[in-house]
Amino acid sequence: MEPGGKARRTSSPVTRELPIAHDIQMPGYTITISPGILESAGMLIHAATHGHRYAIVSDLAVAGRFGNQLLESFPPGEAHLFTFYGGESVKTRETWARLTDEMAEVGLGRDSVVVSLGGGIATDLAGFVAATFMRGVPVAHVPTSLLAMIDASIGGKAGVDIPAGKNLVGAFHQPSAVILDPLCLLSLPAAELRAGMAEVLKHGAILDAPFFERTVAAMPTLIGPEGAASVEMLEIIRRAVAIKCDVVRRDEREAGVRHVLNFGHTIGHALELVSHFAVPHGEAVAIGMVIEGRIAEALGLAEADTADRIARALDGAGLPTTRPDHLDVESIMNATRLDKKSRAGAVRYALPTRIGAMAAGDGSWSLPVPDALVREVLGRS
Ligand SMILES: NC(=O)c1ccc[n+]([C@@H]2O[C@H](COP(=O)([O-])OP(=O)(O)OC[C@H]3O[C@@H](n4cnc5c(N)ncnc54)[C@H](O)[C@@H]3O)[C@@H](O)[C@H]2O)c1
Ligand SMILES: [Zn+2]
Questions:
Q1: Is 372 found in the same domain as 249?
Q2: To the nearest 10°, the Cα dihedral for 215, 219, 224, 230?
Q3: Least buried of 60, 70, 204, 348, by fewest C-beta within 10 Å?
Q4: Residues in the ligand 1 pocket, defined by CB under 6 Å
Q5: Which among 1, 108, 98 is positioned nearest to 54, based on CA atoms?
Q6: Does 269 participate in catalysis according to the annotation?
Q7: Residue 6 domain-assigned?
Q8: Looking at residue 109, what is its pLDDT?
Q9: How many separate domains does the chain show?
Q10: 366 CB contacts (<8 Å, ≥6 apart)?
Q11: What is the pLDDT of residues 97-145, one digit of tens each?
Q12: Cα(265)–Cα(286) distance, integer angstroms
């Protein structure tokens, strides 16, 4: 398919109404968004990377569902499938070691390309494998969860978790192509779709108030039975991807404005860690956004009602908005200190000033917040 050209039609109602592929150009790669594009993914990835062999990295559930279709979109014999058991608990150096060993065993070399197929676990693991295998080979992403489509597949952050915290070992490794087929969402479990909605709402909350409101209004359709194949879903994916791209383009290495994407994540990551990942990422970020919104209000930074508006929006998506009772305040406080944004001992937060705008701080787009204030807000959240 030509960039910006016509998407292949399928029998889906979405593709009949929206015949055009929506490409977003990033420095060095194209994000192709089109219902039904999965069957052409191999061709597009080959055109972007000119690889000779392709290592598809996918969790077992997603591989079982889409693995063959993706394999068959490459010329026969060129692509190999490498799988792992799903879940945050396998985003580890051990899984990275096994995948790279298996790739070496089948003789993949420097002319290989790694292709992630799946959610954010697959993109993060595959990206880190690609960043390190043979000192670095290209990676392409074929995200299948909403969270991976609008967040994890864009921007080049890759890595694994270690006992001390999430994503603490990793690399920046920009993809060579991102192929995004919204129809993959048709099989995504409802809880995972809601988790992705937390990040969609985050994108609106940090940069685009009208988009935030549009998403809130469309939420019943988006999370309804036909939501995954709806025109509304295609539109919110396009806008959410465009927002992430806009931020990453301005600050690829997270030296400044990219910090705004971490809204909700300082508390969110702490909740994941303290719960031993029993609280999934999307839910942790949902609760984290409300608590960090309250922190911003308590500091006098954010307009009154900012946190409540975020909470109402998340509630409409069926997401939690309060700290689970069994996760105690002190453990969460301790976990926030492992955050990568902490500098010189002070934990820093990316904080809103209102829906659609974030505090620039000293230009780092993150601010130190006294422990006492965080403790007080956590205690009543
Ligand atoms: N690199 C980044 O910039 C970035 C950004 C945001 C999140 N992340 C990371 O992403 C991870 C979370 O990603 P996630 O929520 O996608 O988790 P995930 O990869 O575990 O996917 C969620 C679940 O959905 C299943 N699944 C995915 N697509 C499916 C489909 N189409 N049909 C049926 N089942 C499907 C998976 O098998 C899995 O069980 C976290 O580790 C987070 O740190 C990274
Ligand atoms: Zn996130």
A1: yes
A2: -20
A3: 60
A4: 59, 61-62, 65, 86, 88, 91, 118-122, 124, 144-145, 147-148, 151-152, 155, 157, 166-167, 184, 187-189, 192, 195, 281
A5: 108
A6: yes
A7: no
A8: 96
A9: 2
A10: 259, 262, 341, 348, 349, 350, 351
A11: 999 999 999 999 999 999 999 999 999 999 999 999 999 999 999 999 9
A12: 9
